[in-house]
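Lab notes, practical 5.
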Amino acid sequence: MAQVFDRSSNALARASLVLSGLIVIVLGVTLNSLQRSPWVTRQGQRPDQPVPFSHFHHVQGLGLQCQYCHTSVEKSMYAGIPPTKTCMNCHSQIWTDAQLLEPVRQSWATGASIHWIRVHDLPDFVYFNHEIHVNKGIGCASCHGRVDEMPLMYEQNSLQMEWCLNCHRDPAKNLRPTAEIYNMAWQEPSSQRPVWCTTTNVVGPTAQQVACVTTDPAAAGLQLTSLRNAQNGLIQSNPLGLDRSQTVSAVAPSMIPANYVKFTSQEELGLYLTKQYHIRTANELSSCETCHR
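Output from the prediction step:
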């Protein structure tokens, strides 16, 4: 009986198997690259907003704090979009005829909300709580980037699951003193930029139980009055209790606290804050129910 297939069919079959494997590999790499690309994540994209609001101008130029517009960032799941009234607090007096602000004036006159386009938009099945992150030492810039340098807001990070898990598996690398949460220019400790921290023995939120400074307490001659500051609500803005009218030389060296710890690396500071802020373990932070409710 004559052969149905020529001897070259064996080589052709092997080549087709290899080619099929290569196609599958290339297709997988392509799809993986596609789902990580800005086309899917929208990373770096600047959507057209009804009003070209500049964080660079308002934050760095005018010195507005994040909480002035995002009032609920410390006490709710959402940071909050400011109402038109917040804009009109200033723009009823300045730039009253600017064409760029016509949507704001129209919203104020009609009561209709401005339809802002969400830049940082997580999937509906992801539970993200601003409150817990802010009060546990995660700065705004850690997720949103240097918004004070953005004339137009854009998404600096991918916000994909692996990006979140990189932090949840090792949160220490991103923790900072809570007094520095809104400081966009915060830099991690180094031998040239050490940070000194101490416990305050304050009864209350864990974030208020630690006070950190970037000036050597011994050299500056500062004193710690944690209980008085906690009662007066000054523990965040003035963690060492120094009266603003006092000069450095006015404080006696004997009043300098002796329980400050010096940190010269982010790893050391992060591990210290992880303990003081009662951060859960990496396994607990990486569990599915943490983000998926």
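Observations recorded by the TA: Residues 8-35 form the longest helix (28 residues). The first strand starts at residue 195 and ends at 199.
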